[in-house]
Write a structure and sequence with these properties.
Layout: E1 6-12, H1 19-32, E2 37-43, H2 44-47, H3 54-71, E3 79-82, H4 88-97, H5 102-106, H6 109-117, H7 124-139, E4 144-146, H8 152-169, E5 177-179, H9 214-223, H10 239-252, H11 256-262, H12 268-295, H13 297-326
Parallel strand pairs: 1-2, 2-3, 4-5
The structure holds tryptophanyl-5'AMP.
Residues 8-12, 20-21, 24-25, 43, 46, 133, 136-137, 145, 147-148, 150-151, 185-187, 196-197 line the site of tryptophanyl-5'AMP.
């Protein structure tokens, strides 16, 4: 039997997830997980670039783990683990820091955006964030990394670092490809469809949280900003409606043409309600499972332990190889 290729991805462990995180990443992970040997991290080290309240942070990281499982990532089949429990990530990140240029890190748009947003805390971690992300991916020899479009530049620098290293030391790292969902790589804000949907947006109507109840979801979609036209049609001149069509299509599997046909002659009100209902129905089983899993501490602990061990084993193989290649002494 042909060996499966490796898939790697993860999310920061900071608070609730949005529908953007779900459609842009998590849903694709679930869809692809039979095809690949999968590793999914709770990226708690990455979250440290912003000051965290320790008690809340601990809770949020566990909640994210439960949400992964509730969304359909079976921890018996996928390695779902905590980044901070596997020291190889920080070790390889240091080594790769020495193969990454300050100039290339300074060009990262996310660094520039976040430095503006957290001007009082532009720490070195924020700057070297993409190197830790490269270490995450390269440790597991991942071939595929399903993410939203906002991570594209980080994937590119990961490839650059890996190619640079391989050029000097031979084929140590697999060069990863980013994987983007067809119409879900950038889900936009419901309040301003020219901006990415983000949980850090202060306007709570701008984003759907995966934990929002049905009434809230429908209310937020009803309020979604659209144009003053009435025709459900996909197009650059209609960012609000196009975003809702992307959401509806990602959830139902319908194409833009099918959606246009379904709502031809019907107004925006009908369409918005249908999107809200489809999203709420999609999230209902996930929410029920999530509530159940949050109460089952023993099960979650057992999954974490087992998968941490596997992640340590796999990542250490790569780390040992790297150390040997660069000439760090062994006994
Ligand atoms: P994070 O935690 O910001 O986001 C998690 C995932 O959700 C995607 N995403 C979106 N996709 C579509 N539309 C949106 N509005 C939207 N908002 C968020 C993100 O692209 C991402 O895929 N640096 C990463 C975490 C990370 C990682 C890794 C990912 C750390 N190490 C290694 C892959 C591989 C991040 O901050 O994602």
């Amino acid at each position: 039997m042909e060996e499966k290729k490796t898939l790697y991805s993860g999310m920061q462990a900071t608070g609730a997830l949005t529908l953007g995180n779900y459609l842009g990443a998590l849903k694709n992970w679930v869809r692809l997980n039979e095809e690949y040997d999968c590793f999914f991290g709770v990226m708690d080290l990455h979250s440290l670039t912003v000051r965290q309240n320790p008690a809340e942070f601990r809770q949020n990281a566990r909640k994210l783990y439960a949400l992964y499982v509730a969304a359909g990532l079976d921890p018996e089949k996928n390695c779902v683990y905590f980044q901070s429990h596997v020291s190889a990530h920080a070790e390889l990140a240091w080594i790769l820091n020495c193969f990454t240029y300050v100039g290339e890190l300074g060009r990262m748009t996310q660094y520039k955006d976040k430095s503006l947003k957290h001007a009082d805390n532009v720490n070195a971690g924020l700057f070297t964030y993409p190197v830790l992300m490269a270490a995450d991916i390269l440790l597991y020899q991942a071939a595929v990394v399903p993410v939203g479009i906002d991570q594209k530049q980080h994937l590119e620098i990961t490839r650059d670092i890996a190619e640079r290293f391989n050029k000097i030391y031979g084929d140590v790292f697999t060069i990863p490809d980013a994987y983007f969902g067809k119409h879900s790589a950038k889900i936009m804000s419901l309040a301003d469809p020219t901006k990415k949907m983000s949980k850090s947006d202060e306007n709570t109507n701008s984003h759907i949280l995966l934990t929002d109840d049905k009434d809230t979801i429908i209310r937020k979609f009803k309020r979604a900003v659209t144009d003053s036209d009435t025709v459900v049609r996909y197009g650059e001149d209609k960012p609000g409606i196009s975003n809702l069509m992307d959401i509806y299509g990602s959830v139902t599997g319908k194409t833009h043409e099918q959606i246009e046909e379904e709502f031809s002659g019907r107004g925006y009100g009908d369409f918005k309600l249908a999107v809200g209902e489809a999203v709420a129905d999609e999230l209902a089983p996930l929410q029920a499972d999530y509530e159940r899993l949050l109460k089952d501490k023993a099960y979650i602990d057992e999954c974490i332990k087992k998968n941490d061990d596997r992640a340590r084993y796999v990542s250490n193989k790569t780390l040992r190889k790297v150390k040997k290649k660069i000439g760090l002494t062994e006994v």
